[in-house]
Amino acid sequence: MSTSTTTAPTSLSEAPRPGRLRRFSQLRAYTQTLSSSTSSGHRSRNSLSSRVPWLSPSSSGPESSTRPAGNSTAAEVLESDEPALSRYTSAPTAGAFHGLSIDTQTSSAESSRSTPPNEPASRSSNVMARLRSASAVQGRPPRTTALASTTTPDAPTSASETTSAATAISTSATTTTSPTPANQKATIRFFPHQDSLQSSRPSLPFTPIARTLPSDGSVIRVGRYSERDGVPVPNPSEPSDAPVGFKSKVVSRKHCEFSYKGGQWHIKDVGSSSGTFLNHMRLSQPNMVSRSYPIKDGDIVQLGIDFRGGEEMIFRCVRIRIECNRSWQQQPNEFNKNTESLIKNLGKGDGANYSGCRECSICLGSVLRPYQCLFMAACAHVWHYKCISRLLHSPEYPMFQCPNCRAFTDLSAEVDDTPDVLEAKTEDTTEGALPAGESTASHAETQPAAASPSVPATGEQQQGRTSLEPHTEEPDIATDVENLHLQDEDDRNSASGSGNEAEDDRNVDSAGPSTSNDDLARSATVSVTGFQPTQPVNVPLSRSPRLRADTPAETSDDNPLTPRNDMGPLAFDGRAGMRSE
Amino acid sequence: MASQKRIGKELSELTASPPEGISVELADEADLFKWKVFMNGPEGSPYEGGKFLVNLTLPNEYPFKPPTVSFGTKIYHPNVTNDEKGSMCLGMLRADEWKPSSKIAAVLEFARQLLLEPMPDDAVEGRIAEQYKSDRKRYDEIAREWTRKWAMSGQ
């Protein structure tokens, strides 16, 4: 989804254009502002970029997340982009979020404790659609600090209406601290492409290849595979400009080159005999060097032409689908952070806020119901496994193309279990950015064991109450499920404004099973009524940070020895405060 | 069936809050896969004032396969075939362009937008496209006349 914005904003911001282009941009604006899915806008963007080739360089140029710092031209490009971008981000985002906030507010206001488990489909999906477009806009890569600073003023303010103050703060924090251009490198990936349109012969199969340029001036040479080069590494973990080789006779030894200049990937035929084709256009005469052509995400590059009908594998041409300028998608951004929160909050009912990733784009149903199989692609889009399985087990397997953003995922890729440095860093800042340093402190003081899976009951309860939402300690599932129910308890209590005694009783009740083992805890919680999302949308989220921020009295609550009975009224107060704002 | 569930959802969504100038109903109550869409000619286009019947057919594999859109009302438009089929050429409905996450609402919006701004470079009726590009006035005239003749007869 967020991909759809990669080119869209830029082209939108190019103000008046004649004829078709103007129409396209109008159309795009039109479809995007409508509550229909952003995919329509996406689609028109696609056609725009595919049919108007001269637009593509400019549209994909500024979005290169991979530009190294200190590149003066890059900085210039960015600066010139900035006003346009900010213009874009401010207007529709604010609009979308505004609409959203109204929706959610009304819904939370009018939804009593007995909101039906399924919100009226039309409304919720409207919210969703808007959210999606909003998050699509916001999900723009925080490519540089400059851009981040332009987006942040918009993002948190509008977001704070819908989510909570603390979430907004954490978003802004992560936005500003997210990777600077310094640690971003130009990345390109090659995927095998089978031409589906003409019933043409299959092209040469190859494993997907990824390259990250070690330096700005490096060039990726592509040619025929040769034993002399040694066994090629398809996906080196380190930045590499190792040549890419294909085992086909129609590929010349020196066939073409990929380079990265001024924030834009280029391809150049270096005198191949059977030609390099960019989107079916031959770049140069046989054995002639071509000029550099800009390429963009989704372009198809064909090396050579089938020889002898391509019956033998060795005579098949190579068709490559290019994936570039997508590295922002592989870094923390608004959208995949939302998805992360979705995963962490899964099973908490509609209480948590997922900003746009709660809908399966195949069945348009919610992915939030607990106990169903989900599939998440590398681009952080989520579907029901059942819905998406058809696209997973396609003839293209192990390649999977996201039906939302068209990003390719290699399903056979090795599991990446390296510790995520970036993520840890941003999480730190998230924690630090929260106004309540006290909550962290209190965690440290009163529940040192909170991070470990075997938490004492009270500790867990506190965790459920105080650090509901950014689970910095990565609790295990059982803890999550427990949190959910404890939280529901709180909600019910606070929503009803019931007395302390009742609440105390319930807390004791719910704390009881959680002391035992995980299974028990889970089964115990299943029966809790809160499992049907009875609480109003967004409320728990907006409440928890408020508690952390504004109620220092809570520290006493963290003490395992004190009874936990002053939580309800406080929670109620905090939430009321949030709402009236 | 999964597709029925989704279609039902989209249908109820579209009937509950139809996009501007568009109303949908099932051609046959028992068949979720055939829709009748009534599209009002957008303001400012030569189709203004007309009410066009658009037949939307959903494949069994929906949403993995795109729906097909055809005009049941005769219309003078570069992107709609000028025969009894009235097939409409929508880029987003091409098999390789279609994405399951696209919704029918978006398709209809797109179709209506096409009434407002035809795409002569993507035309199925080359002659009309040529005229649209070279003699816009004449095109407007004929389109308006056709609209009067075919799309307003019921009123």
Q: What features would you describe in this structure?
A:
The complex is a heterodimer of chains A (581) and B (155). Chain A has 581 residues and is of the alpha+beta class. Chain A has helices at 4-13, 19-33, 39-51, 55-60, 72-110, 121-138, 145-162, 165-177, 334-345, 385-392, 421-433, 437-446, 457-466, 477-496, 500-515, 518-526, 539-550, 554-558, 567-580, and strands at residues 187-192, 209-212, 219-224, 244-246, 256-261, 264-269, 276-278, 281-282, 293-294, 300-303, 318-324, 374-376, 382-384, 399-401, 408-410. Chain A has three domains: 4-181 and 331-410, no CATH class; 187-328, Tumour Suppressor Smad4, CATH 2.60.200.20; 434-580, no CATH class. Chain A is 45% helix and 10% strand. The longest helix of chain A has 39 residues, at 72-110. Chain B has 155 residues and is an alpha+beta fold. In chain B, 34% of the residues lie in helices and 18% in strands. Chain B has a four-stranded antiparallel β-sheet with strand order 1-2-3-4. In chain B, a hairpin with a 2-residue loop joins strand 1 and strand 2 (31-40). The model of chain B has no long low-confidence stretch (mean pLDDT 85). At the A-B interface, helix 2, helix 3, helix 6 and helix 10 of A face helix 1 and helix 2 of B. Chain A: It comes from Penicillium diatomitis. Chain A: One of its GO terms (biological process) is protein ubiquitination. Chain A: InterPro entries: FHA_dom (IPR000253), SMAD_FHA_dom_sf (IPR008984), Znf_RING (IPR001841), Znf_RING/FYVE/PHD (IPR013083).
Terminal CA distance of chain B: 39 Å
Provide the spatial order of strands within the biggest beta sheet of chain A.
2-1-11-10-7-8
The largest interface is: A-B, 37 and 32 residues
The N- and C-terminal alpha carbons of chain A lie at a distance of 31 Å
Number of strands of chain B: 4
Mind telling me the CATH class of chain B?
Alpha Beta
Percentage beta strand of chain B: 15-25%
Rg of chain B is 15 Å
The general outline of chain A is: globular
Output the CATH topology of chain B.
Answer: Ubiquitin Conjugating Enzyme
Range of strand content of chain A: 5-15%
Instruction: Flag low-confidence runs of chain B.
Output: none
What structural class should be given to the helix and strand makeup of chain B? alpha+beta
Written as H for each helix and E for each strand, in order along the chain, the element string of chain B is HEEEEHHH
The parts of chain A where pLDDT drops under 50 for at least 5 residues are: 1-19, 27-182, 423-560, 565-581
Name the quaternary structure. heterodimer
Helix content, binned percent of chain B: 25-40%
Average residue-wise pLDDT of chain B: 85
Largest sheet of chain B: 4 strands, antiparallel
